[in-house]
Amino acid sequence: MINISAIFTIIALKIKEIFQEYHYSILAPLITNLLFIIIFLTIENYYTLSINNYSFVQFIAPGLILMIVAQESYFNTSATLINMKQIGSLEDWLMAPIFRVEILFSLVCSALIIGIFLAILNFIAFSFFLDLKIYNIFYFLYYLVIVIIFFSCVGCIIGIIFNTWDSQSTFSNFFVSPINFLSGTFFSINYLPENYRFILLYNPYYYVVSYFRDSFHQPFIFYKLENIFILIFIFISIIITSFIFFKGYRVIK
Asked: How deeply is 66 buried, as exposed, middle or buried, from its count of CB atoms within 10 A (0-12, 13-18, 19+)?
């Protein structure tokens, strides 16, 4: 039987921690994104930059929102598990009447709430500098949820397998950051040489960023094949994460 009370308790605990540590969990990523916007707006005053009939800043703004949400979703879940391992509190969770998969579900749900809040906060902040409008709120939330689920699952895998902050930072530097920067956040695939376009064409995260960006514009065209590709990739990541939690590989330091 699902322990609803325990799940809600974990979610409430995580949300409370995030808001208590708002200076680096909320303000830091928000300020980082605003600095990107201010810098590129300043550059646009001197150079005419446009991509796909939009100004360069309007083009990258949706990608910046996704990038910061992805990074925070990864850091929140991985930091929670690694910190609990180091102070020994994870053992208390494992002895509680709650399944490990329910712990995973709680962490992902808390990441969803925090990620959506962070995305909306960034959108509001960007609106003071740019003429941004969300024309397709359903797809805005849909692709946002997909990104949060994937990166929070990645964070859970790293947090459950590894025990040190060095491992977390290393994976962030060699996987999370590259996949964000090579997802078309700062450039269009049309500007890449044909020999290098495969980097994006076989990257499901590229399609997520592209569709999320389209939710800010009209019209929105939904391609079934690409979205099936995205859902299969997300489903596989969920299955792998659930399996690792179920098996409990190196759960206790």
From this structure: buried
Q: Tell me the residue type at 251.
A: V
- The count of domains in the chain is 1
Q: pTM of the full predicted structure? A: 0.89
Rounded Cα–Cα distance for residues 217 and 139 (Å): 11
- Give the pairing of strands 50-51 and 54-55: antiparallel
Domain annotation covers residue 52: yes
SS3 per-residue string spanning 105-117: HHHHHHHHHHHHH
Residue 252 lies in a domain: no
What mean pLDDT comes out for the span 5-15?
A: 86
Query: What is the pLDDT confidence band of residue 58, given thresholds at 50, 70 and 90?
Result: confident
- 195 is in which domain, residue-wise? 4-247
Token look-up 């921690």 returns 17
What tokens does 195 get?
């020999």
Residue 253 forms part of a structural domain: no
Asked if 66 and 212 count as a contact pair (C-beta separation under 8 A), the reply is yes
